[in-house]
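User: Can you recover a sequence for this backbone? Please restate the input before giving your answer.

Assistant: Of course. Working from this structure:
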């Protein structure tokens, strides 16, 4: 550990993402055991199903209880440091890591520039950055997709409204790296799948070979 990090840890020590007690990692050993009871990575395939452009989806938790609370704190409570907590959850699960490494690279679902400015960070991108520090094999591509329309928040709409709301909200800004690639999309919560499906449609239309989706939780 260098001097800068030593001073940083002295004034801003690491705390557990659940109990918030000071510890050496993002999750203390006691809370890690609690998490194991609700951690069930579930993978579902969608090959050749009409209207679904991604080929498979894996989520780690149900969007409820403690996980739902932490995700909402992370996204809306200005608690960006929780990215380390979620990255540790992913990194410590062999099944999830095997799923990630199967793809050529991973794309965080992009935010519109105004939403990113308002929040101060893209929650999905921060988690991936923290994860990539733990595993150098993970390649993040943040220059493939762009959100070109600042739409209504999907969480405020029903399933049909979400589908219409998200249409043509994203565009490809680097199509060269898409063709014949196996691409994994990453987001925090999967509800109706409208966002990931729209992103997958654009990627498939630009020549992507396979699209997978990984989310922390599924509603």
């Amino acid at each position: 550990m260098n001097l800068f990090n030593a001073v940083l840890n002295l004034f801003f020590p690491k705390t557990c993402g659940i109990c918030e007690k000071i510890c050496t990692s993002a999750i203390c050993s006691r809370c890690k055991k609690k998490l194991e009871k609700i951690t069930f990575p579930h993978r579902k395939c969608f090959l050749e199903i009409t209207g679904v452009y991604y080929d498979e989806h894996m989520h780690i938790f149900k969007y409820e209880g403690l996980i739902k609370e932490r995700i909402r704190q992370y996204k809306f409570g200005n608690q960006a440091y929780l990215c380390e907590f979620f990255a540790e959850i992913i990194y410590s699960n062999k099944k999830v890591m095997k799923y990630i490494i199967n793809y050529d690279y991973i794309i965080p679902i992009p935010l519109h520039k105004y939403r990113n400015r308002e929040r101060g960070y893209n929650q999905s991108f921060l988690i991936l950055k923290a994860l990539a520090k733990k595993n150098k094999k993970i390649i993040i591509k943040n220059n493939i997709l762009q959100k070109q329309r600042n739409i209504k928040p999907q969480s405020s709409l029903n399933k049909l409204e979400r589908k219409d709301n998200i249409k043509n909200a994203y565009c490809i800004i680097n199509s060269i790296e898409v063709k014949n690639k196996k691409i994994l999309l990453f987001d925090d919560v999967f509800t109706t799948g409208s966002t990931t499906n729209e992103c997958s449609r654009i990627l498939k239309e630009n020549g992507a070979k396979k699209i997978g989706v990984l989310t922390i939780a599924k509603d």
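That completes the design. The first strand starts at residue 42 and ends at 45.
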